Amino acid sequence: MVTLKGNTIHLRALEPEDLEFVYVIENDESIWEISNTQVPYSRFLIRQYLENAHQDIYEAKQLRLVVCLNDTTSAIGLIDLFDFDPKNNRAGIGILIQNIENRSKGIGTEALALLIDYSFKQLQLHQLYANIGIENEHSLQLFSKFGFEKIGIKKDWNKVNGIYHDELIFQLINNQ
Prior knowledge:
The chain is of the alpha+beta class. The chain has helices at residues 19-26, 32-35, 43-51, 57-60, 107-121, 137-145, and strands at residues 4-5, 9-13, 63-69, 75-85, 90-97, 127-133, 149-160, 163-173. It has a domain at 4-126: Aminopeptidase (3-Layer(aba) Sandwich). It starts with a strand and ends with a strand. InterPro entries: Acyl_CoA_acyltransferase, GNAT_dom. This is GNAT family N-acetyltransferase.
């Protein structure tokens, strides 16, 4: 896969060297509600996942890319296409910038712009969607900035610390 490059960041494929980065993210309980994770992942399972990361999106039905600053190959975040549906030309999209100090700097904006462009031009998708917790103001603002529209509310969708929270579904249609 060609590296997707922006002004300050680039998106690249997962590498075996990303094992510790992915391990830390997948086992960070503070984001489990976002990733819908309920149990920790072992290094063994993540190593197996990375060994199969060479599958293209048509095989795996997902694409996970690493977000890196342009002057390095070190991972600072992940951006995913998931539930890839080639028959209906759609996929879900999600993003995570790991450290708080890298947030609110335009990194997520640039990464999302690159993946939307890739999705519509290269994969020729008709639509993208995002599932966003109602309290996740940063993601709500980010996806709205790109024209994603709220199309529904999933009531009491996610149980976090014993309390049910709504989740919003946003959609972006490629009208070109």
